[in-house]
Amino acid sequence: MEFSGLILLSVFLVLLIMNIPISFSIGIATFVTMLYSIDFIPAATTIAQRLAGGIDSFALLAIPFFVLSGLIMGQGGIARRLIECAMALIGMLPGGLALVNVLSCTLFGAISGSAVAATSAIGSFMIPEMEKKGYSREFSAAVTGAAATTGMLIPPSSILIIYAIASGGVSIAALFVAGYLPGILVSLALMLVCSGYAKINGYPTEARVPVRVMAKKVLAAVPSLFLIFIIIGGIIGGIFTPTEAGAIAVIYSLLLSVVFYKEVKVSQLPAILLKSGETTAIVMLLIGASSAMSWILSYENIPQAITDFLLMLSDNPLLILLIINLTLLAVGAFMDMTPAVLIFTPIFLPVALELGMSPLHFGIMIVLNLSIGLCSPPVGAVLFVSCAVAKTTIGKIIRPLMPLYIAMFCILMLVTYVPAISEFLPKLFGLY
Predict the structure, then answer these.
(1) From 180, 306, 326, 349, which residue has the greatest number of CB atoms within 10 Å?
(2) From residue 49, how far is each of 18, 25, 42, 258, 341 by CA, in Å?
């Protein structure tokens, strides 16, 4: 078992260093390990079965729907309306523009299901606007990057669906509802930091908006925000499944962006569909390859060995959970969120279960943890996009990013050690 695990890890790391795409790295490393463990013919048969079987799930149909819905909404003029709504509501508070940035990124990330899309769409407007009002470019980029990740916890979220599959069947509906409180807490923590940072540096506040103008801006954004209520309301009410909710989201985004807002032309739809197909194919290949890796991990009893090792290190659950979180934070700094969830869920979930943690609670913890990785150097995808939009470098935004990073880490610890934050809403609605 030890040698098999060493082969798997060594081949995987070597392929990553060679810049081989991660799906192929996972698949090749798994196949090489299978060759050592079960010979060529069984290995070839098994990996083919696991690649196909890993994506043979009705729940996974939700992913292409939510990806397509997010792409349509991303081009549907939603970012501008959300920013104007947030500006009218909280722009007059200390650090107003920074708070508007956080709220807009959170809402857009939740609607589109993409932290990168939120960074690009909101950042391209808010970063220059904040700079005009005296905010430093680096602070503006740091706020955008950190805030964009909160949308990964608030449904519709494809990464929560991926975790549900990787964990072996946690309720997607329960995960969707469970993500609300942690996502809101992260957003509020970032706002608190931004407000304090603005006061210390003497950043200006925006003028108070008349009630009539505020109502107009809020009403303009309501159709976009209504998508969140349609999806979660339908799931909680038992009207449709999460997969069916994805199809509803596509229909609603089409009507909103093409017919109501008229921001997306029919001629643009083929390109959007193609992009959606490409993104879905990448995710599905990752899921299939990771399913094969999960099989060899189980076959070699590696998760159990890791569980035994961690429990041998300490019998203190608080310390073990801290070790898991620090490990995942390190992983998230170098690996994208989807493969990290697929690879490390089968490894660390047995440890969490042994400590009495529920799969639902662990799912929210790992998604929140790896969301922080999206804005962590050196490889955080959101960080790169934020720097590109702001025309600055990662080295320059590290300092303003640190208070935001610490705030997110504090919420991660709170979510880790207080199960009720993740489990209260699903239990309230009878989903868990």
Answers:
(1) 349
(2) 27, 18, 10, 41, 21
Average pLDDT over residues 326-346: 89
Cα angle 331-335-339, degrees, rounded to a multiple of 5: 105
As given in the structure block, the two tokens for residue 250 are 């596509």
For the residues of 247-292, what is the DSSP string, one character each?
HHHHHHHHIIIIIIS--S-GGGHHHHHHHHHHHHHHHHHHHHHHHH
Under 8 Å between Cβ of 155 and 130 = no
pLDDT at 180: 93
- For residue 1, the model assigns a pLDDT of 52
pLDDT tens-digit readout, 55-102: 888 888 888 988 888 888 878 778 788 888 888 888 788 878 889 899
Q: Which of 363, 343, 325 lies closest to 16, judged by CA?
A: 343
Distance CA(374)–CA(392), nearest Å, equals 18
The yes-or-no verdict on residue 117 having pLDDT over 70 is: yes
Long-range CB pairs of 258-264 (<8 Å, 24+ gap) are 258/76, 260/223, 261/76, 261/77, 261/78, 261/223, 263/75, 263/76, 263/77, 264/72, 264/75, 264/76
Cα angle: 158, vertex 31, 23; to 5 degrees:
30
Alpha-carbon span 197 to 192, nearest angstrom: 9
Contact 400, 127 (CB under 8 A): no
Which tokens hold the place of 166? Answer: 């990787």
Of 203-217, 242-256, 303-317, 348-362, highest mean pLDDT: 348-362
Query: Positive or negative, the Cα torsion across 281, 283, 287, 293?
Result: positive
Closest CA to 405 of 185, 183, 159, 142: 142
Phi–psi pair at 19, nearest 5 degrees: 65, 30
HSE-up of 48 (CA within 13 Å, CB side)? 6
What amino acid occupies position 422?
S
Q: What's the pLDDT tens digit per position in 18-47?
A: 988 888 999 999 999 988 888 777 878 888
Structure tokens at 407: 């705030």
Cα distance between residue 66 and residue 154, in whole Å: 13
